[in-house]
Amino acid sequence: MKTTFISTVALWNSPRSSLDKLQDSLAKANTELTTGRHADVGLALGYKVGESLSLRQQRAEIETLTDTNGLVIQRLKTTTAALDSIREDATKFRDALVGLPLNPPVGVIKGEAEAYMESLISSLNTSVGGQYVFGGINTKVMPADGYASGGPPSLKDLVASAFSAPTGAGGFGFPQNDPLVSGITAGDMDAFLDGPFKQLFEGPDWNALSNASDQNIQSLISPMEKVETSTNANTTPMRQIAMAYTMIFDLGIESLSPATRDVVLKKAINVLSTAISGIIDVQATVGTAQAKTESASERMELQKSIFEERIGQLEAVDPTEAKVRVDQLMTQIQTSYSLTAQLKQLSLINYL
Fold first, then answer.
1. Residue 141: pLDDT above 70?
2. Burial of 136 from C-beta contacts in 10 A (0-12 / 13-18 / 19+)
3. Which CATH number applies to 54-306?
4. In principle, which of 142, 246, 249, 337 could form an S-S bond with 110, CB 3.0–4.6 Å?
5. 219 near 227, Cβ under 8 Å?
6. Please, which pLDDT band fits residue 108 given cuts at 50, 70 and 90?
């Protein structure tokens, strides 16, 4: 007969040997109970882990695009509001010019035109989130300088130079405040407005006021769709509105003869009418871009839900089963601690 001796130390260490495994299992079970997914997705899914990672990557891309679309929509809404303001100002001023009496209050008209010009520049400098909405791709640069503070030379300087240029160059040979202004004929003024003056707003001289880029922002609003999501201060309607305001307040109309002044007023009315139609077209383009962006975001939210459902099917754990496992492991650990404490009390001295 052979007897095997078991020491007290061996008995003490026996529960402790499995305690580490129990605690590790408890940590994983708690993680699964808290997150609702396998603690070790790779181990749980095996070869299917690649599918899970792919779904998560696609969902992350959609979330990024959706967040970006939120900023795009905010920019487009701000742009629409600014365009509304510009269009309303131009409409009010055009209607005021149409309703002028035979002897118009020139001082009042000039003051209104200058105020509307300042309002136009302020609207063109509208920003959202630190980005200028009328800058085209130059979103960090203020799109419009002041009429007299740009440059040098400023747009005001260029208008004065064009007006006082020699007659052979299309000007009148004297400044706007010269008494000789009263002698400008209607035909000469009409030629000036359609010639050198118009070129200031249609050609490169416009850059004396505008710092915007002609190129608008292209935004990726879905994995397969890119649209133009901005406008800029260099569009034809903006130039035309600025030109109409300028011809009223900075061409010395108070000194012009009634017939010549009438040419300026009618020209301003026609230019504003054309510009208002152009602004409406720009608003339509901006509105279309906003509608497309909102529609893309709605579609991607549906796609995101589908991805999340599939990911849940792969990675999710039963919360009830996870809670039962946590309780069982806690009970086993407490039992192990209790057994260890009882074994520590075993001593031969107690039985002598």
1. yes
2. buried
3. 1.20.1330.10
4. 249
5. yes
6. very high
